[in-house]
Amino acid sequence: MPFSRAIWVEVGKSALTHNVAQVKKRARGQGLIAVVKANAYGHGLAGTALALRDAGVSQFAVASLGEGLELRDAGIGKPQSGILILGYSLPSHADEVVASGLCQTVISVHEIRSLAGAAERLNKKAHVQIKIDTGMHRLGAPPGDFPRLMDALRRFPSVVLDGVYTHYSSADVNDSRFTEQQYELFGKTIEPFKLPETVRLHASNSSALINCPSLKLNDVRVGIALFGEYASPEVPKILDLKPVLRLKSRIAEVKALKPGDGAGYGHRFINQSGSPCRLGIIPVGYADGFLRHSSGKREVLIRGRRCRVVGAVSMDFAHILLPDDLSIGVGEPVTLIGTDGKDHIGAEELARVLDTIVYEILTLIPTRIPRRYVD
Q: Which is the catalytic residue, given 25, 188, 237, 265?
């Protein structure tokens, strides 16, 4: 996307490479599957995956067929597999899944049969991984269904089993007992089948990698840690992770308000200071993931100084209360996420202030904001 607006994301490739090394060190010989769903957690899907590939990552996981195809178009992944679709794909898309060589998560015999039909029509192999629900109670086959799924794979030799996995529901809390129970149930479910080494087993996400390093399988499936963030405040910060994303803008206009003047929709900001004040207008709004309710709570950095967001955040603009002692004009850089001078506003701080999680802060940054990949 051309840089047509005065707002952009900077993705630090050196920080990404550093975090990959930290994750691999913690994984202690387990393979790394980089989770890049949701536009690589807001960092930009194709550009981030290419940077991860340059950092030595060869296995990726996405949420949907569309994301997988975008990676394929960018030249990511092996001719067959290399990219795992974690989510559900409609049976009507089976031909496209098989033709692209993507690896599809399956949880039912019906899905295996559908992919087998596509594979036979295209004279290709379909690649799948079975997801077992060990307690998340979200997408996943019940452990008792695993024998039926394995039997279906024997009946449909055009479908190749690349892996079996599960997902931990509570790895980001201090108490690891339920995570350990899930790990044990996963092992008991697959143990009778003596799966070959070509079938990769994985369960640990970023939090489990940190909190439960002894729960080892073939691979780890890591997302948020690669981007320098921790899933929750309960996850100990024992890895030397570096934030990868910076969100920046520039002042588009400066407004001078007399005492009593109001600004924005409903004049939700009124200058009650008794003296003139100045507001900086930035071309960033709730359509950019800059949440409407962040007004009065969120701050930005200008020349290393914190400046408060005031008034009603609109679709494409927000108001910043400027310091009286700084001469700030049009074009002045503004840091919304990242470091400026000696201060830093990170996704974790914003999640705390806005009562949400770092995942939401990052993934709310839409594709209409261009990404720049910098060293």
A: 265
Q: Return d(Cα 248, Cα 365) in angstroms, integer.
A: 12
Give pLDDT tens digits for 235-258: 999 999 999 999 999 999 999 999
Closest CA to 347 of 47, 42, 62, 50: 42
Dist. CA 96–CA 358, nearest whole Å: 33
Q: Which of 37, 168, 230, 359 is catalytic?
A: 37
Residue pair 43/245 in contact (Cβ under 8 Å)? The answer is: yes
Asked whether the beta carbons of 286 and 313 are under 8 A apart, the reply is yes
Vertex 292, ends 348 and 283: CA angle to 5°? 90
Cα(228)–Cα(205) distance, integer angstroms: 14
The pTM assigned to this predicted structure is 0.95
The token pair that represents 361 in the structure block: 């802060």
Distances (CA, A) of 163 to 23, 115, 196, 326: 21, 16, 10, 58
* Domain 13-227 classification at class level: alpha beta
Find where tokens 């840690």 sit.
Answer: 225
Catalytic annotation present for 183: no
Burial label for 90, CB within 10 Å (0-12, 13-18, 19+), is exposed
Structural domain spans, the chain: 13-227, 245-374
Long-range contact list for 189-192, CB < 8 A, 24+ apart?
A: 189/132, 189/134, 189/143, 189/146, 190/132, 190/146, 190/164
Q: Name the residue among 347, 166, 123, 132 with its Cα closest to residue 247.
A: 347
Burial degree of 261 (CB within 10 A; 0-12, 13-18, 19+): middle
Same fold, 13-227 and 245-374: no
Question: pLDDT tens across 116-148, in order?
Answer: 999 999 999 999 999 999 999 999 999 999 999
- At 52, the pLDDT band (50, 70, 90 cuts) reads very high
Residue 282 in contact with residue 251, Cβ under 8 Å? yes
CATH of 245-374, one of 3.30.450.40, 1.20.1510.10, 3.40.630.30, 2.40.37.10: 2.40.37.10
Q: Among this protein's residues, is 25 annotated catalytic?
A: no
